[in-house]
Amino acid sequence: MADAKADIGVIGMGTMGANLALNIAEKGFKVAVQNRTAEKAFAVKDDNPELADNIFPAESLEDFVKSLKTPRVAIFMVPAGKPVDDEMEKIRPLLEEGDVMVDAGNADFNDTVRRSQAVEGTGLKFIGMGVSGGELGARHGPSIMVGGAKDSYPLIEPVLTKIAAKYKDEPCVAWLGPDGAGHFVKTIHNGIEYADMQMIAEIYGIMRDGLKLEPSKMAEIFRDWNTRELASYLIEITAVNLDEIDPKTDKPMVEVIVDEAGQKGTGRWAVIEAEKLGVGATTLEAAVAARGLSSRRAERADAAKLYDKVEAGQPQFFADEPGLSELESALVTAKIIAYAQGYAAMAAASDENSWNLPLGTIAEIWRAGCIIRSHFLDDIAKAYDKGHTVVNILQSPDFVGRVAKGQSALRRVVAKASLAGIPVPALSAALAYFDDYRRERGTANLIQAQRDLFGAHTFHRFDTDGAVHHKWPAV
Ligand SMILES: NC(=O)C1=CN([C@@H]2O[C@H](COP(=O)(O)OP(=O)(O)OC[C@H]3O[C@@H](n4cnc5c(N)ncnc54)[C@H](OP(=O)(O)O)[C@@H]3O)[C@@H](O)[C@H]2O)C=CC1
Ligand SMILES: O=C(CO)[C@H](O)[C@H](O)COP(=O)(O)O
């Protein structure tokens, strides 16, 4: 059918774009595909003959636009930043009133706000949409967080509903708010993903350096944990990672992998935005910082030599007790605290930007498809579903009991790891946040006194209204 038109188009045939296009084609939609290196677009069709009738590769952007039904929907799946601006710039003159540009890559939500504003009044529409689930998610069902032009959402909703992951038949996709709302939520998703991964890595560190367990034994433990409260994709893949044997050396794969974590920016964006909003997402921050420090491997090796005589305590501290259920309980508790921080950042951003983010719906669409998918997210969804305002997950009746019960395990694990010199930055950040959050009388009174002494910044008294300045002794 030479003159059939595509229902939707995808630009960028990398890992995510190609798989998203195949997912769309498989669900019965006709999809136009285009790529900077044009052969890749044609390869997507050639390599998937069973879906070839639904895939329309284009040599150029002009051909791509011509092959789309009107109003046209063009999805960008290219790296964040300049590539998105460049692609938008190139396609804009080819589009007409009512056509929609969709950035489905990861994006700094400030860029998404700017791009939304740039199309205002032009007749074109812009949607910023976070897609999570990696390669397999894109191919078989991702979680999709949509933001931007609400009036254009109905144009893509039928496709998104079909291609999204399903949680008990419910599609994991929703329009979450205007302009940058979708990309902000995806950014916080990734920040939580960083914290989740860091905490799992810290528990792995305790198992490896404290309990001296073999990776295959650790895999067994993670598989067991995956049957209870911690059941999640990240715990599941951790067991797979730990069980894998390197064909070249016959050693466990994790032992031949260099201990330097990569990062593409989304975790850092989450932390920056949380700080801007005055919401300390300390577990996310610890995770980003730990990735940064991991990449300074030579410097760490030098420091290890400098401090090799330092008494770090007794690693066997862990060895004389199984402690596994304590580790499990500590991880569950820290995880709840990390999610509470991510949710607090979303709540603050929602107020700040008047987005009215549906926090319960966000938990619902994270239950399947995305990297942080877990049963636990269903608990969060239920906490929001009860109609009452959730000030903070740590104050939700559904979680208070769990945190109160698990905090002593977290406390003991952090204390033991610290005494043994095993770093647990995210777990200890979770514990410190919890202790600070639940303390009625804090210590900021002293900070206020210091600020007033050196800068006449004023402070509030319990017994007087309004800000006052005290005449401190001269120092
Ligand atoms: N990989 C993942 O697990 C996930 C990635 N994402 C996000 O999806 C987006 C795409 O990621 P991914 O598919 O992994 O990336 P890839 O590196 O696999 O693919 C990138 C694609 O973008 C194209 N591209 C790169 N630079 C430019 C440019 N300057 N102008 C036009 N096209 C360009 C490439 O074309 P060419 O073939 O010519 O090089 C390629 O098709 C990113 O925003 C990423 O953060 C989101 C969720 C998960
Ligand atoms: O968005 C994702 C998952 O949700 C991508 O896989 C992203 O690349 C992960 O971040 P990083 O590369 O920084 O670990």
Give the SSE layout.
Elements: E1 8-11, H1 15-26, E2 31-34, H2 38-46, E3 55-57, H3 61-66, E4 73-76, H4 82-91, E5 100-103, H5 109-119, E6 125-132, H6 134-140, E7 143-148, H7 153-163, E8 166-167, E9 170-171, E10 173-177, H8 181-210, H9 215-225, H10 233-243, H11 253-256, H12 266-276, H13 282-294, H14 297-306, H15 324-353, H16 359-365, H17 376-385, H18 397-419, H19 425-437, H20 444-455, E11 459-460, E12 467-468
Parallel strand pairs: 1-2, 1-4, 2-3, 4-5, 5-6, 7-10
Antiparallel strand pairs: 6-7, 8-9, 11-12
The structure holds NADPH dihydro-nicotinamide-adenine-dinucleotide phosphate and ribulose-5-phosphate.
NADPH dihydro-nicotinamide-adenine-dinucleotide phosphate (NDP) binds next to helix 1, helix 4 and strand 6.
Protein model, in words:
The chain contains 20 helices and twelve strands. The mean pLDDT is 95. The longest helix has 30 residues, at 181-210. The protein folds into three domains: 8-179, Rossmann fold (3-Layer(aba) Sandwich); 190-437, Orthogonal Bundle (N-(1-d-carboxylethyl)-l-norvaline Dehydrogenase, domain 2); 444-475, 6-Phosphogluconate Dehydrogenase, domain 3 (Single alpha-helices involved in coiled-coils or other helix-helix interfaces). It has 475 residues and is α/β, with parallel strands linked by helices. The protein is 53% helix and 10% strand. Residues 12-17, 35-37, 40, 77-80, 83, 86-87, 105-106, 131-132, 134, 264 line the site of NADPH dihydro-nicotinamide-adenine-dinucleotide phosphate.
CATH class identity of the largest domain: Mainly Alpha
State the strand order across the main sheet: 3-2-1-4-5-6-7-10
- What proportion of the residues form beta strands (DSSP E)? 5-15%
Ions and ligands: NADPH dihydro-nicotinamide-adenine-dinucleotide phosphate, ribulose-5-phosphate
SS field, number of helical segments:
20
Overall number of strands: 12
Our measurement of the CA-to-CA distance between the termini, rounded to an integer number of angstroms, reads 86 Å
Q: Which fold name is given in CATH as the topology of the largest domain?
A: N-(1-d-carboxylethyl)-l-norvaline Dehydrogenase, domain 2
What is the number of independent domains? 3
Q: Give the uncertain stretches in residue-range form.
A: none
Shape: globular
Assembly status: single chain
Task: Report the major sheet.
Answer: 8 strands, mixed
**Rg, Å, rounded:** 25 Å
CATH homologous superfamily label of the largest domain: N-(1-d-carboxylethyl)-l-norvaline Dehydrogenase, domain 2
- Examine the secondary-structure arrangement and name the CATH architecture of the largest domain: Orthogonal Bundle
- From the helix content, strand content and strand pairing, which structural class follows? alpha/beta
Average pLDDT over all residues: 95
EC number: 1.1.1.44
Protein name: 6-phosphogluconate dehydrogenase, decarboxylating
Pfam families: 6PGD, NAD_binding_2
Domain 6-phosphogluconate dehydrogenase C-terminal: 182-473
